[in-house]
Amino acid sequence: MEREVDVIVIGGGPVGENAADRARAAGLEVVLVERELVGGECSYWACIPSKTLLRSAAALRAAQRVDGAKQAVTGGLDVRAVLARRDYWVSDWSDQGGADWLESIGVGLERGHGRLDGVRRVVVERAGGDMVVYRARHAVIVATGTDPVIPPIDGLAESRPWTSREATSVTAPPTRLVVIGGGVTGVEMATAFAGFGTEVTVLARSGLLSGMEPFAGEAVANGLRGLGASVRLDAAVERVERTTADEVVVTLAGGETVTADEVLVATGRRPRSERLGLETIGLEPGDWVAVDDTMLATHADGNAERPWLYAVGDLNHRALLTHQGKYQARAVGDLVAARTLGRPEETAPWGAHVATADHSAVPQVVFAEPEAVSVGLTAAAAERDGRDIRVADVSFASVSGAGIHADGYEGQARLVVDAGRGTVVGATFVGSDVAELLQSATIAIVGEVPVDRLWHAVPAFPTMSEVWLRLLEALGRPGTADAAASADGDADEADESDEAAA
Fold it and tell me: Where is the composition biased (Acidic residues) (predicted)?
């Protein structure tokens, strides 16, 4: 027997939850399928626990940077208390709260592994082995996320490496930890464990945070070294061997070895789609699911004649970030409801039912030491996009609010401006506690606010936001000769940035 509902959501992380919530709020009958915990990777093994593990040491360092406060810091980090706080924020890995919330909004929960079995048909294998079949009257939304990649390094898979799950659910920090990878996960976990007092070695094939402006990765590498970590760039790992239960040996190209208690692999993610039944609808199992701006799967059987399959979050490979996935999910839930109920579809750029910002304004925060945050395009990416750009670079040393925030504050900010349109297309801030500056940059990009208009957005004094005034001054005051001179200088700086990125 098959049970019919309006919408089936496969994947109960934050992305799937948002899609289900929006569709249900419109009055549709929705069932959500989840094989593990409602709340997904982000809630239990990624965003929430990782940031909780990072926060206590970051707060301690912040106090130590302010004279008068640092004298009050007489002890070290209480690691046991940090882990207990992490346990609270992940609800001791219980998803009862999530399940109760779904019930409260009227979304059905089906626990088990869901897979597609033809157009609008989903088979769920429950934990006990029973099978139940659902058919969607209108739509199936897949939000199954990603899994960590274990690269084909000799001996690595057999060495029982950590992934982000083991790192964020740790019960006792190891004495020595090797981190393979210089991306966001590798950097953040290296920062967290260095804060615990672990002897951390980071092995990166190139620089750190390669998707950001070069100065961001350089600052984070220096910050990790300041925490006592070893950061090895251009390091190629040839072999990993677990010699005992408590020891693993990593061999680099050239024969040098690094010995640790654990090795954390943070070299990327792959789509969780191998067992999703994609082959039953003309797609390739194990692949990312390509979508258009409405998140409609572009090559699935039957989608052209009657749209029914949508892929949101990491699975569509547009922006592997929880907040962007939730943004997509809100648009999709509303769109499915509009199509089902015959309401107007707003699918033009910046319409309610599309994810336009995934092309132009994806914000990201790296909770490292220091924080590195960005939104939009880097200078190099903007030039590759064929844009005529102006770049403004300033040091936070010129910002009074930064100096008051912390003694000897160090940090850097960059704006990338499309010279032809006169609008900001990219922003990067590096420094302690700069994450809260990011939303203003995101609004400037999404709103396509002319730079000349930004001069009238007066930052309060003395706050960190004063950096915006310094950036505008670096671009040159509008309607004056120094604006043209600044544009010439910024073009030279952008060329240098491209060389550094290359």
Answer: 489-502
314 is in an annotated binding site: yes
Q: Report the distance separating Cα 178 and Cα 231, nearest Å.
A: 10
Domain range 157-264, CATH architecture: 3-Layer(bba) Sandwich (3.50)
- The end-to-end CA distance of the chain, in Å, is 59
pLDDT, position 246: 92
188 is in an annotated binding site: yes
Residue 51 marked in a binding site? yes
Fold identical between 157-264 and 370-501?
no
Residue 184 counted as an annotated binding residue: yes
Is 268 annotated in a binding site? The answer is yes
Q: Cα(422)–Cα(443) distance, rounded to whole angstroms? A: 15
**Per-residue pLDDT at 479:** 60
For the domain made up of 2-39+95-147+271-358, the CATH class stated in words is: alpha beta
Q: What is the pLDDT of residues 324-358, one digit of tens each?
A: 999 999 999 999 999 999 999 999 999 999 999 99
| Residue 185 among known ligand-binding residues | yes
The DSSP output letter for 464 is G
What average pLDDT does the structure give for the chain?
94
Strands 269-271 and 371-376: unpaired
- How does pLDDT run across 437-466, given as a tens digit for each residue? 999 999 999 999 999 999 999 999 999 999
Sign of torsion over alpha carbons 368, 373, 374, 379: negative
Domain boundaries, the chain: 2-39+95-147+271-358, 157-264, 370-501
How far is residue 411 from each of residues 160, 191, 307, 467, measured CA to CA in Å? 38, 18, 48, 10
- Establish whether 448 is an annotated binding residue: no
Is 187 assigned a ligand-binding role in the annotation? yes
Residue 107 annotated as lining a ligand binding site: no
Q: Does domain 370-501 have CATH number 3.40.50.150?
A: no
